[in-house]
Amino acid sequence: MSTDLVEFRQRAREWLAANAPAGGTGPGSVAEARAFMAKLYDAGFSGISWPAEWGGQGLGQAEQRVFDEEAGAYTLPTYYFSIGLGMCGPTVVDLGTDEQRRRWVRRLLRGEDIWCQLFSEPNAGSDVAALQTRAERAGDGWVVNGQKVWTSVAQHADLGLLLARTDVDAPKHKGLTMFVIDMHAPGVTVRPLKDMSGRSNFNEIFFDDVHVPDENRIGEVNDGWRCAVTTLLHERLSISGGVGGVAGGRGNPASFEALRATCDTADPVVRDALVELYVRERALELFNARLGQETRAGIFPGARGSAGKLLLAELTQFRADLATSLAGPAAVAWDPETEGAGGLAEALSVAPGLALGGGTNEIMRNIIGDRVLNLPPEPRADKNVPFKDLKVGTQQ
Ligand SMILES: Cc1cc2nc3c(=O)[nH]c(=O)nc-3n(C[C@H](O)[C@H](O)[C@H](O)COP(=O)(O)OP(=O)(O)OC[C@H]3O[C@@H](n4cnc5c(N)ncnc54)[C@H](O)[C@@H]3O)c2cc1C
């Protein structure tokens, strides 16, 4: 490791020891999270590998990895920014105009704007190109009408990355356009949905005649599918290697380290299960390390990010099931006064969501088969049919 990286690690370690909230487990308040992001940015640890001209630190993936390793010992209050940092921001950096990058990137990295991703709809999840939210030209901008669902952190969001239909006469993948929408604009209604963790991690959103200026369009009109694929590639990489990844799972009460410390490791059945957990964690860690090395060498992982996302979803479910069966009744009943109590129930209740959000396990397998292994793709009878003639959503 070069001296610079050693120094960088030391600086990150000292800063985290002095500034990371002690014993943090949940997302904390939005105000605290914004304040933390501002401090993180000012210390030079937000957007470490993002281009300096748009507000990033202009360092490399190696520095980012060093920081992630050091930060793995803490639960940083960055949850509200995970969609922005993991997918919306990278999309703006990749596809936005210079003016858009100047407008949004630094604010995201400093915690001034929370972003959400507005792709999925009640009738368009796996088949997101079947979405029906419309954006129609109106004067110098657009008017948006429709509904989204499953939108993480939208109840706190300032901006949303929206995928909308702009041409119903074109086939479904060719009539979409991407926009950045002001979540505080008149006509945007956000309704939180409660999931089985008891919290509102996602929302349903309604757009009624929401005006979006044309300067908020990302990419060309009707080129939204290409933009969406960019976002989804970033999403899968950020899920498998990022905040929710193996590194971020160190504080997880269901991780190998945590279970080894608390279980009867003399029991051969327990040992066997722990070995399998260890192997799965290491496999994902090494897979991510390899993708990281390739990225540093200028090779974009592309669809292979789907393999990491699939591995993480399966690992998360496996360790939640294992931890629960090892803990027995203690996994589902606890003394609320005990520090960290309820952590296993939490791990168990969020695990299934990971097999859906960012694309389901089945869709990840389809992508790996089609774009990584070059197997024959799924037949697509609707490929050349105008969207308005398809029997999808409310058109059925
Ligand atoms: C925790 C969480 C957070 C999320 N956050 C966001 C967000 O912030 N923004 C956003 O836009 N979306 C978000 N989503 C939505 C997520 O992307 C969708 O749930 C996902 O794409 C699946 O869509 P669906 O729920 O409509 O299921 P469907 O697409 O209806 O799928 C139902 C079942 O059919 C299977 N299936 C569907 N098509 C195929 C196929 N071709 N081959 C094989 N099997 C198939 C699926 O695997 C699944 O098991 C989130 C979801 C979750 C769970």
Automatic annotation (TrEMBL):
Residues 222-373 form the Acyl-CoA dehydrogenase/oxidase C-terminal domain. InterPro entries: Acyl-CoA_Oxase/DH_mid-dom, Acyl-CoA_Oxase/DH_mid-dom_sf, AcylCo_DH-like_C, AcylCo_DH/oxidase_C, AcylCoA_DH/ox_N, AcylCoA_DH/ox_N_sf, AcylCoA_DH/oxidase_NM_dom_sf, Mycobact_Acyl-CoA_DH. Residues 116-210 form the Acyl-CoA oxidase/dehydrogenase middle domain. Keywords: FAD, Flavoprotein, Oxidoreductase. One of its GO terms (molecular function) is flavin adenine dinucleotide binding. Its cofactor is FAD. Pfam families: Acyl-CoA_dh_1, Acyl-CoA_dh_M, Acyl-CoA_dh_N. It comes from the Bacteria. This is Alkylation response protein AidB-like acyl-CoA dehydrogenase. Belongs to the acyl-CoA dehydrogenase family. One of its GO terms (cellular component) is plasma membrane. Residues 7-112 form the Acyl-CoA dehydrogenase/oxidase N-terminal domain.
